[in-house]
């Protein structure tokens, strides 16, 4: 992912269903942005489906796909969370949570049956979702003297940059959002302005 500044996610919740030997598997896919949001959704799903035998999930966060977690919630190890995550990875999605609830039908499915069921339910939820491509952005904080205001604003206007925050006084500060692949170019432009200091805050 190092050479790209775009990533794919879903833009709204979606649902998928799969049945096998009486067991019902309902997959819920959600666009998410942080672990707190994921925790809240998991709590809500458990309340809404309190009579389900299992509430298994997998999620992935970040444009570089580095942050992820999975949970089998009592199913045999590797039979639920891993196939859910596998479908997320296969679809090259991130900033996504998939929770699959299982209503037990009285018949044991075996390892292969479980893996297939969680995989198929997740695949159905992803297939039902609208997948969107988003741009990775970097936030740059700029501290500058009031005298540099006109030159800075000219650069912001010229490059059509998004002004995120601004504070104007004797000592001024603004934050701008820049497409990741353009960060070096923008910093180079800013360095040519006197009485100004620009720092990358933290790219998402």
Could you list some keywords that capture this structure?
204 residues; five-stranded antiparallel sheet; Alpha-Beta Plaits; single chain; alpha+beta; elongated; Ribosomal Protein S5, domain 2
* Largest β sheet strand count, sense and barrel closure: 5 strands, antiparallel
Integer tally of domains: 2
Look at the structure and give the mean pLDDT.
Answer: 92
Shape type: elongated
Task: Chart the SSEs and their pairings.
Elements: E1 6-10, E2 14-20, E3 23-31, H1 35-48, E4 54-61, E5 67-71, H2 81-90, E6 96-103, H3 110-127, E7 131-135, E8 137-145, H4 149-158, E9 162-167, E10 171-179, H5 183-191, E11 196-200
Antiparallel strand pairs: 1-7, 2-3, 3-6, 4-5, 4-6, 8-10, 8-11, 9-10
Explain this structure to me?
- By secondary structure, this protein is of the alpha+beta class.
- The protein has 2 domains: 129 residues, Impact, N-terminal domain (Ribosomal Protein S5, domain 2, 2-Layer Sandwich), CATH 3.30.230; 65 residues, Alpha-Beta Plaits, CATH 3.30.70.
- Helix 2 packs parallel to helix 3.
- It has a 5-stranded antiparallel beta sheet, sandwiched between helices. Strands 9-10-8-11 form a 4-stranded antiparallel beta sheet, with helices on one face. A two-stranded antiparallel ribbon has the order 1-7.
- It contains 5 helices and 11 strands; from the N terminus they run E-E-E-H-E-E-H-E-H-E-E-H-E-E-H-E.
- The protein is elongated.
- Helix content is 30%, strand content 37%.
């Amino acid at each position: 992912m190092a050479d790209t500044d775009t990533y794919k996610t879903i833009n709204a919740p979606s649902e998928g269903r799969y049945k096998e030997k009486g067991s019902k598997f309902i997959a819920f896919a959600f666009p998410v942005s942080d672990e707190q949001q994921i925790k809240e959704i998991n709590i809500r799903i458990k309340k809404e489906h309190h009579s389900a035998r299992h509430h298994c999930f997998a999620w992935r966060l970040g444009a570089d796909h580095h942050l992820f977690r999975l949970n089998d919630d009592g199913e045999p190890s590797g039979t639920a969370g891993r196939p859910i995550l596998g479908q997320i990875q296969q679809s090259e999605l991130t900033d996504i949570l998939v929770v699959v609830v299982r209503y037990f039908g009285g018949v044991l499915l075996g390892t292969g049956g479980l893996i297939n069921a969680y995989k198929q339910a997740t695949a159905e939820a992803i297939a039902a979702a609208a997948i969107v491509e988003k741009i990775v952005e970097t936030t740059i904080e700029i501290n500058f003297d009031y005298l540099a205001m006109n030159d800075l604003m000219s650069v912001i206007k010229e490059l059509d940059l998004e002004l995120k925050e601004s504070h104007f006084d004797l000592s001024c500060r603004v934050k701008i959002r820049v497409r990741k692949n353009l960060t070096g170019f923008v910093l180079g432009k800013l360095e040519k302005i006197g009485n100004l200091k620009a720092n990358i805050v933290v790219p998402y």
